[in-house]
Specification:
heterodimer, A: 113 residues, mainly alpha, three-stranded antiparallel β-sheet, 59% helix, 8% strand, B: alpha+beta, six-stranded mixed β-barrel, 26 helices, globular
Amino acid sequence: MAASTPLKTHWFQILLALAGEDRHGSGIMRAVLDQTGGTLKLWPVMLYNSLEQMTEAGLIQEIGGSERPTESERRRYYRLTRAGRRALADEADRMASLAKAAKAQLATRRGDA
Amino acid sequence: MRVYRWLLRLLPGSFRARQQAALEDAAREQLAAAGDARLSRLRVAVGLGADVVSTASSLRTQAVLSAVVQDARYAARLLRRAPGFAVVAALTLAIGIASNTTVFSLVNAFYFVPSEFPDSNRLMNVSETSPTKLCAGCGVGTSYPGYLDWRRRAQSFVSLEAYDEDAFVLSAPVTPERVSGARVTGGLFSVLGIAPVLGRDLNRNDDRPEAPPVMLLAYDLWQRLFAADREVIGRSVRVNGVPTQIVGVMPARFGFPERAHLWLPLSSAPPSTDRDDRRFGVVGRLRPGVTLDAARAEMRTIAASLAVEYPASQMEWSIDVKRLGDDRVGTEGQAFAVMLGAVALVLAVACANLAALFLARATQRSREFAVRAALGADRGRLVRQLVVETLVIGAIGGALGLMLAIQGVGLARRGIAVPEVPYYINFAIDWRVLVFCAAATIGASLLVGLLPARGATRRSLVDSLKQGSGSGRITSPNQRRLRSSLVAGELALVLMLLSGAAVMGRTFLRFAERPGGYDLDGLTLAQLPLAGSRFENRDALGAALADLTQRVEAIPGAQVALSHIEFVAGFGRQDRSIRIEGAVTPAGASPRFAFAITPGYFATQGLRVKSGRAFTAADRAGSEPVAIVSQQMADAMRPAVNPTGARIQLRPDLPGDLWRVIVGIVSNYEGDPAPGRRVNPYVYIPLAQSAGRPVDVMVRTTGDSAAAIAAIRAAVSALDPDQPLTNIRSALEEHRRGYWFVGYFAVFYLTFAVFALLLAIIGVYGVVSQTVGERTREFGIRAALGADRQRLYRLVLGRSLVLAAIGGALGLAGSAFATRLLGWLLFGANPNDPRMLGAALATLILTVLVASYLPARRAARIDPVIVLRQE
């Protein structure tokens, strides 16, 4: 898997928000806001556009009526697909290795000094 | 919320349909979360708005881009599958684009001349103009005293500088040669903003009468006469016999006035103080902040006060100020503009052809479109697909066309390298030409692409599917009509081009033949400037000419005639005419020139004396003043007086002008291919009775003229060794040079007409063969019912002939109008010459028959058994 191509920040955060539980649109928005300490706010059009594109890319899926936690709500819930989970893991790995490389680089620098 | 809902309409429809409710919920939620604080509500509202707009714009661009790329890919794939169609369509367009781009680049060269002068739109040409005098409204320059008055009074210009075009004879140490040049005031070149590349400029000191004689050389003259020797500065050359020092060399590709190769200060000849001698051109640079209108107004005021001060010479004269480059658009430019109209016809023919091609193709694909429409493609999408397809063809055709045009411009550049084209005209492909090419290509493609798109996407699925696949490519009557009218229109345009080409070709041939029956073959022309102070005195000049006449007439094996042109009453002025003794001069009886000739002139030229006598040696200075008039002039005089024996004054406005007796009538001279030519009245007088210079030399020999020329040179040298015999050329060459333009036009026109004809063949062939294809069944049944081959041939060809007849009729009407636009280019030829129109029509009909023959043969050979079995 080509872990070298970074995931869009929005997409990464959305995947992350869905990693623990299925959520509807507003739920995702709030989760992302929490995760990022209030720095990334997903506005509605951007959010739903991203959700559509991610669905098309096969990273998430809309879940059918029977699986919805609350039937009364007309909200649509989203769930990570297998590919989505994989993409999230890859991205996390990529970031980790990036962080590791950066730390190593910084360490040698300090050693030089 | 209402605003938000309205903003959401910016989003693509499909996205909105799916997400509108969710979006509204989310927005409402966010607004609610913001609480009641105004500021935070506002912040959320702005955020929501920005969100919609930014995503919408990126979504839209992506959608359009990806769709266009998709369409283009699809188009490329389709075209690869139909390479014949693609090649024919692209070539058709390429021919149209190439002809138009080539001609446009010629027009461009004449109309948009880049000026070599810095800040050239502040450079002005200042001239006197009169609605009644001389050449009715054109600028004519001014006199020397007039120029001095302007320079003293005008405030609008940084400085006003004057020049006087003249020809000079260069001699020792160089071989005697006549060179055109100008006498100029010292500041001329600094006002123009052009500095010499070598040596110094002329200046005010050189204008003083006592200044030593100096001159500037043009670059080409420096290269030719002095082999670009940089040591030339300070050397002395005789100019009109006066040793003159070379002080500078001007840059390459510079001439002002445009054909000058040599510049002397005004002091080289004391300027005439006659206010009626308007020989000086004047240029000036506007002072900063002064507008053209202000300068014009000031100069008019100055003209008005000069008219009061010098009524005798300045009455009815005003001053005009024009941009210096404005008169550079010559008749050639206008002519090319007319030609641009002609090649637009070629492009129109190409477009009609393409439209017919695309239409046919769209018909073939109507099932594909119907199915796609049924599967949910909207009409806009299908139209876009068709347009993108034409644009792909257009891009290929345009690129091919541009490549051809580059070749065409190269050909034109090599072809039109004649001295008549001024140095600043440069045929090239520049950005204007490229823009033109691109615009023509895109315009043509869109036009052609949209036409079939309308019909093709409108048909219903049911209709298309119902027709099945067998012989199913049936064109709707509407489309068949459209295609037939396209072809008929195309034929009309082709006929217009053909008849134009025929008329131009006829004009060309008329000039290529011996004009008016003259034998130009053995005729050689030359000029004898007789410049220099020795010949300023009229009596001295007369004696010299008499001597020279005797010498040249004695040359064995050659007929030599000398002549000199005098401007007489009819020249340029409507209000003057010659005077006929005892009668009122009828209109049209006043010639513009008098030819002062030696007795051998008529015989050498090939004119016949129709009544009376020719001049003889007995018509000398001091004998009775005589004249001979041309047939045309005699005819014009006849209502008033019997020409032979009548007495006339040629310049009645001059005091003491001689009364001349008309002793003969000579045939009309019909040789010059002057634009807008008609037969002009001419009058001839003996050179011995009216000495003048420069002298034109005409020699008729049976074989090589070199010996005769050498003998004339010797005769001239005996008179004055410093005098050159210049501008020696054969009369045939001269004549050809005079109509080079006609020749080019005929060739251009014919080329374009042939292009159009080729396109028409393709167009007719396409339509007829498609019709035959569609009617295969019908023909099969006809054959089965006993129609013989001849009948089937007649059926197909008859239809083509109907098209040809309609196109021909339209085309005849069109060409009656279009050939008139050719105007003066026809040099008096009849634009509606029935023979030419007939020839064009015959060519057209023949072409149509040839193009229809193959499809007709196919129709005639249809085997009824095979056709009927398919049912």
